[in-house]
Amino acid sequence: MALHQLKTSIQEEKDEEAIPQWTFKADYIETCNCDYGCSCNFTGFPSNGFCSALVGYHIRQGNYGKVTLENLEVVDAYSWPKAIHQGDGTHQIFIANRATEQEQKDAIINIFSGRVKGNGHFALFAPTIKYHLDPQSVDIHMNVDGRRSSFYIPGIVDVQLENFVNPVTGQEQDAKVQLPRGFIWKLADAAKTKIMSISTQSLNFNHSGKNAFYSVVEFEGP
User: How many domains does the chain have?
Assistant: First the structure.
């Protein structure tokens, strides 16, 4: 091994040692601009050539080292001009202002920006992001109710899910998508958005009536 490679390896080991053990389990509410089911899950490319997503998390339990993350809400806003893996994305993290300790905010930012590795999508998405918008502490109203879940940030984000209904019988569907090798979720309830919008200076879109999922996810690192 060359000297510079050895130094790089040692530094990477030190960096990883500096990352505390972290884990969390959360209700996961995903919405995007794709058609129902989200073709990204099957072909890797979005239905309309670009990807915009608003994702809500209610952390049921979790910790980042000694910092507790229990009962915190987080909203991720993403936008990519093409497919996710093609990069040049924009990302903003919204943290519920009930996270009053700076250590909690820092932990959320480190995890959701992919800085502290781990399984799941955070570290995978990180290299695809070109514009990292400043995280915001906001008032998040989140209602966890499966395919009827919703989350709302006054004046900024509005997301409401609804179930598919059989047009003949009027009965609600029990649609699910199973991805045994999925890196975000393995099994999710499929739904659609009644409302899906964000309005900020840098992120402004409305993709109501498109794809949505509800699942329960568990991630850990490093």
Answer: 1
